[in-house]
Design brief:
This protein is an alpha/beta fold. The chain contains 13 helices and eight strands.
Length: 320
């Protein structure tokens, strides 16, 4: 059993299976259609397989890469039956997904020598950023860590209010200022408060605007410099939150944010309501950034630690 299985168990695996249900229903149906009546993997099978991947929002570039790898393996092995195609496909999809160097996030631990562990959360408005922060805070606290939240999205009163509700729900302190305050000042106060409290984890929300990349870059730069006045090598993580249900639009957002700041991890939300779960592969492949968490619902525990083996296993397993 994988690390994922040991750590979480049956209930979480079922949540992952259910969360990917809409994606895999169409995906697996198309794969079945691609190999129907075929005894070996030929050009037609590969063309149909390509169509199945693209329709699941895996993306053209990543799809071509997967198909080329399968084609190469078919040629090398001389003969591959369609019964073996699923295995080949699972292996190649899993190979696309990369692992984070530090694995402490898998049990909501803190990397050695990084206390307080500062996480800066970025992403456009409406992707589930604040909800993800609340769920992260809940899980870090459940793992025995003390957490401080920072409401540095000072441009929207609703963002501060929503994060305040989450802080009360989870039972962790929040640092906030009046609407329109300098976000870097809020970030500074949050980290200073965490150091004074000897807190383990700091999670800071940021404004989610993309209409002016230069402004976004300047703002995130200011926030980072403010944080570093208190904790020199922070933030230790810049987490980009993307809405999986938007498919290729999420990919475009990833391009924008990775161009303006050094994103180190990705969290993908709303996979439970979409057939576009293949975008996870496109994002991981194109940006070489590990996906650490996926959201499969609105409940406080509906944040699943991403494990590539379990993800691929669920993608190829229809619920009975």
């Amino acid at each position: 059993m994988s690390f994922f299985g040991k750590l979480f168990g049956k209930q979480e695996k079922e949540s992952l299976d259910q969360g990917l249900q809409k994606t895999k229903e169409g995906f697996l149906a198309k794969i079945s259609k691609a190999i129907a009546g075929k005894s070996s993997v030929d050009e037609e099978v590969l063309d149909n397989l390509e169509e199945a991947l693209v329709s699941a929002d895996v993306g053209i570039e990543t799809t071509i890469k997967i198909i080329e790898r399968i084609e190469k393996r078919v040629k090398e092995d001389k003969y591959v039956g369609t019964s073996e195609l699923n295995i080949l496909l699972q292996e190649e999809i899993e190979a696309i997904l990369i692992d984070a160097t530090d694995q402490s996030y898998k049990n909501f631990g803190i990397p050695a020598g990084k206390k307080p562990y500062v996480i800066l959360v970025v992403g456009v408005n409406g992707v589930g950023k604040t909800t993800t922060i609340g769920k992260l805070a809940h899980n870090y606290k459940k793992a025995g860590n003390s957490v401080v939240l920072g409401a540095a999205d000072t441009f929207r009163a609703a963002a501060v209010d929503q994060l305040t509700i989450w802080s009360e729900r989870v039972g962790v302190p929040i640092v906030k200022q009046a609407m329109g305050s300098d976000p870097s000042a809020v970030a500074f106060d949050t980290v200073a408060s965490a150091v004074a409290k000897n807190a383990d984890v700091v999670i800071i929300d940021t404004a989610g605007r993309l209409h002016n990349k230069t402004h976004l870059m300047d703002e995130l730069g200011k926030i980072k410099r403010a944080i570093q006045k208190v904790v020199p090598h922070a933030p230790h993580e810049v987490m980009l939150v993307l809405d999986g249900s938007t498919g290729q639009n999420a990919l475009e957002q990833a391009k924008q944010f990775t161009a303006t700041t050094e994103v180190t991890a990705i969290s993908i939300t709303k996979l439970d309501g979409t057939a576009k779960g293949g975008v996870v592969l496109a994002i991981a492949d194109q940006f070489k950034i590990p996906v650490k968490y996926i959201g499969v619902g609105e409940k406080i525990d509906d944040l699943i630690i991403f494990d590539k083996h379990e993800f691929v296993d669920s993608l190829f397993t229809l619920q009975k």
